[in-house]
Design a protein that fits this description.
With 337 residues, the chain is of the alpha/beta class. It contains twelve helices and seven strands. It has helices at 3-7, 35-49, 53-63, 71-81, 101-122, 149-170, 194-206, 223-233, 252-267, 285-293, 314-322, 329-336; strands at residues 82-85, 90-93, 186-190, 214-218, 240-246, 276-280, 297-300. The strands form two sheets. Strands 4-3-5-6-7 form a five-stranded parallel sheet, sandwiched between helices. A two-stranded antiparallel sheet has the order 1-2. The structure holds 6-O-phosphono-beta-D-fructofuranose. 6-O-phosphono-beta-D-fructofuranose is lined by residues 192-195, 246-248, 251, 254, 307.
């Protein structure tokens, strides 16, 4: 989501003479609902901010006008208010929602302050005050949007490292030490919640039918589930790349999965460190474990990327690259951007 698109609302939402409220790409399409239910929501939000029942009723009148029934007036309202985003092929008809002009005027300052907050957020404001963090996952899709050159370089260098590592794994320049296949054939992804959803999305939605490395997931702490995955891998454990993903690096469920997998490696007489990869924040427990044990590779998870929005970080892109998603990583970023 580029700043330029957040703030440039005016060309998209009619009427063009009025001050537009909804910017092109910040609109979230509601589920199809009846006009009355939407108008009802508007009334409810007003009621909650009004102090007395009569004040609430008055405010309700101002915000939610009657839904237009007259076909000519409705047509003009439609022409005025049809929202079009030609690039996205998106049309949204808000004309049948019973909002009034006064409602729009009252909302304008609130919307402008929301846009301002969004612009600030994109420029790197601390948007997560509890943890003192920026929120910048969209910089991953276009590093030039990052608020400073350090972050931009960090994103670009990580991309290059992911590309090279994936090429080396697929091209068998980096091999598992004891595999009869002489190359990695499987990925076992260990991580839960936000650290599993991105790789699962990539595997389900983007990977080709027969990727060079097939992927399996340990995404909860169920011992039977973990055993099941390990048993299904069987002798191919010797050619399995284990990617352990945890932003915090300390999630107990993920650590349980890791310990179980490491036990399976020991029992099979395999050296886990030659097949283990960590994706985590620098200096986390997982990062330190991987560094001290000398794992095959470590990739960063930036503190300004939330788990559930991490698919365009190493969390999603390393599995994507290893499954040879047909586009190169940079092209894929371009497409998603
Ligand atoms: O990536 P981490 O730090 O292991 O965190 C995993 C946990 O964090 C979340 O992604 C978000 O809180 C949860 O879904 C999950 O339980």
């Amino acid at each position: 989501m580029a700043s330029s698109t957040i703030s440039s609302s005016s060309s998209f939402l009619k009427p063009r003479q009025r001050t537009p409220l909804f910017p092109a790409k910040s609109l979230h399409l509601p589920r199809p609902r009846s006009i009355r239910s939407i108008a009802g929501d508007l009334s409810t939000s007003t009621v909650s901010s009004a102090s007395t029942p009569s004040a609430a009723a008055a405010a309700e009148k101002k915000i939610a006008g009657p839904v237009e029934k007259d076909p000519i007036r409705l047509w003009h309202r439609y022409v005025d208010w049809l929202y079009q985003h030609k690039d996205l092929g998106l049309y949204l008809d808000v004309s049948r929602i019973g909002f009034t002009e006064e409602f729009l005027e009252r909302m304008e300052p609130r919307m402008q302050s929301a846009f301002l907050a969004m612009r600030e957020l994109e420029k790197g404001a601390i948007a997560n005050p509890d943890e003192g963090r920026m929120v910048g996952h969209y910089w991953l899709r276009n590093p030039k949007l990052a608020p400073n050159s350090f972050l931009m370089t960090q994103i670009e260098q990580t991309l290059d490292t992911i590309s090279k590592f994936a090429d080396d794994i697929i091209g068998a320049k980096i091999k598992p030490p004891s595999s009869p296949a002489g190359r990695f054939t499987q990925i076992l992804s260990v991580g839960i919640g936000g650290s599993a959803l991105g790789p699962q999305f990539v595997a389900e939605a983007l990977a080709p039918d027969n990727p060079p490395l097939k992927v399996r997931f340990i995404d909860n702490t169920d011992p039977a589930g973990i055993d099941h995955q390990v048993a299904q891998i069987g002798p191919e454990l010797a050619s399995t790349l284990v990617i352990v993903i945890s932003k915090s690096g300390g999630t107990p469920e993920t650590r349980n999965g890791l310990l179980e997998v490491q036990k399976a490696f020991r029992e099979a007489g395999l050296d886990f460190s030659k097949q283990g990869v960590a994706i985590t924040q620098e200096n986390s427990l997982l990062d330190n474990t991987a560094r001290i044990e000398g794992w095959l590779a470590r990739f960063p998870m930036f503190d300004w990327v939330g788990g559930r929005t991490s698919v365009m970080s190493a969390v999603g892109l390393l599995p994507a690259a290893l499954q040879a998603w047909e586009l190169t990583l940079k092209r894929c970023l371009l497409v998603l951007h």
